[in-house]
Amino acid sequence: MSDLWLHGLGQTSMGDPGVIPIEGLTPIIASDEIKGLGLPFAYRSLGTLSNRKGVNHYHNGKVYVLHGLGVTIYDATTGEVIADNTHTTSSAHMTPDLAATDGSYYLAQGTTLYKYASDGALIWKAENVGSSYCIAVETSGVYVGVSASSAYYIKKCNRTNGQVTWTSTSLSSNIAALAVNSNTVIAADQSYKIYRLNPSNGSTVYTYTIPNNRYAYALAIEPGTNHFYSIDSYHVIRKHSYQTGEPIFEKTSANTTTVYNLFIDSENNIYTVSNREITKLDNQLAGFIWREDHNISGNPIYGFGLDKEQGKIYVLRQHSARILSTDKEWSDFIPHQFEGVVNSIDVDVNGNFYGASDDWTARKFNALGEQQWVYRHNLALNFVKADKNGNVYIADTNRTLKKLNPYGVEQWSCSISGTTGAVTDLVVNSEGVIIVSIAYFHTSGSKDYLVKISPEGTLLKTMEIGTSGVFRKLHLWDDRTVMAFNKLYDIDTLRTIRYFSAARAIFGRHGDFLFGVYDDEIRVFNKYSGGQIHSFEVSDINITNFYLRAVQGLDGAVYAWDNDKTLIKFNEKGEKFWRYKAVEKIADIKVDDEHNIYLATGYYIEKLTQTFGIKGYDKN
């Protein structure tokens, strides 16, 4: 028979060819198949757009998102994907058909205007309308700002067939923004001008020049009045008269950076959105009703849509979306996504799993991927760990450790002073005493710390234990001792009681053996003597300015990953089973009792399910 590894049955020695199957035991490692993406909540990135104008729209209970891969339509109540349509969207502009309820939408890309059904089927296309810069729609037609033959126009097209109804006279330069209703068309170009056009024929009613050589990035028409708004490249918002275009009110510093979207709610309050801030102002621009600065590195705000009736703002980020009420209360929109990079994950004995993220949240999901709760902090979180009782420990970038109960309610907070780096692991003994590892990795000098905290959250002792830069994992050797890096420490005193001099960073313990990382190698040691048994290399990986990381399953299998997207599985002898390429860079991995693999990869948690079977098993 071929080598066969059985759950719950170790090898007699690391050199033995295998073990004889015992009736009733199930072989768990004999297949090289792995499934992923594993669950629907592991959803792909929306992709990147260089132009954020009009990338997000709400209409008739749906949210339309234009992104780097196409157009995705979401149910505004549940966040479920209604349609995920692939289009060429480089430099594209999109709007739903606001005069229809069938879910159709318009996409202007290159010199062509398209109308699509909600499932992405093409309804019509109008070619050679000109290179598009912006798009707007109302009951009588679709309006596109275009350029052609070094001239710049607004074109009105028929909603039913795409035929051009009229073309304006040439404007001065590229059209930067459009706002339309049944009574008027407002356009802004990059020559600092605002135009009012006649909606019947496109003739110019008047032109207003914005002061100080600035042009409007966004426009909005105030319903039921004779006013419209503009905001320029220096964040000055103005309320204009329909009749002349002259400003009635204006306010400087309406946002912290460039604004691409303006919206007006049912009470005629005005909203601005940039890549980092959303503001709400009254319609006389007398002051802010509120400001929301929610700048998340790597996940900027790309736009939003407004549901006037429900008072909800749908906020799109590069990798996620959320709902912000007009009263500034956040809630989830697209389920099971984080707004920042997921730095740490964990899974408990009941199959619940947890994530801690740069978006300042820790989140709990059940085994089906349904979100159970969200804990919001005031700093990025880079560690999460669940204990056997369902309590959850989280830590932020300032090494503040918090204990949450199984419902996500904070129990205590402990600031770990006198340390540098990030919390990497945590163990709790039967008395509730907490031991924490902290590591600071830097090419010019690294530091490792061991920290003891009382069950009530009081910092008892902090001790620097080395400068490895690879200190990632703690193991309760028994209820009185803990293994950190390559030493055993007495929990009462944190005194070293045993030293495994040949080992480096121990990450796993299985049967009679310890498993550690050394550069691009996995080394195996005798648990009792500390002597090295053997090692194996993890090849074809990227550990530049990094170090190999690894975890171990209950069956002894080793899962190693690199500084990029590669995950490799080995058995205890170093025989490779498979390689897996994640969607984004891998930050953390956990393996549950059922051998499912959880990956923190970019802004998502992936769950991978392994398919186990018997390979080459023959009875002699």
Write a structural description.
The protein has 620 residues and is mostly beta strands. The chain has a domain at 93-298: YVTN repeat-like/Quinoprotein amine dehydrogenase (Methylamine Dehydrogenase, Chain H), CATH 2.130.10.10. The strands form 15 sheets. Strands 3-58-57-56 form a four-stranded antiparallel sheet, with no helix packed on it. It has a four-stranded antiparallel sheet with strand order 4-5-6-7, with no helix packed on it. Strands 8-9-10-11 form a four-stranded antiparallel sheet, with no helix packed on it. The chain starts with a strand and ends in a 9-residue tail after the last strand. The model is unreliable at 1-32, 37-43 and 614-620 (pLDDT under 50). This is Pyrrolo-quinoline quinone repeat domain-containing protein.
Features:
Methylamine Dehydrogenase, Chain H, disordered N terminus, mainly beta, disordered C terminus, 0% helix, Pyrrolo-quinoline quinone repeat domain-containing protein, WD40/YVTN_repeat-like_dom_sf, Quinoprotein_ADH-like_sf, 620 residues, elongated, 4-stranded antiparallel beta sheet, PQQ_rpt_dom
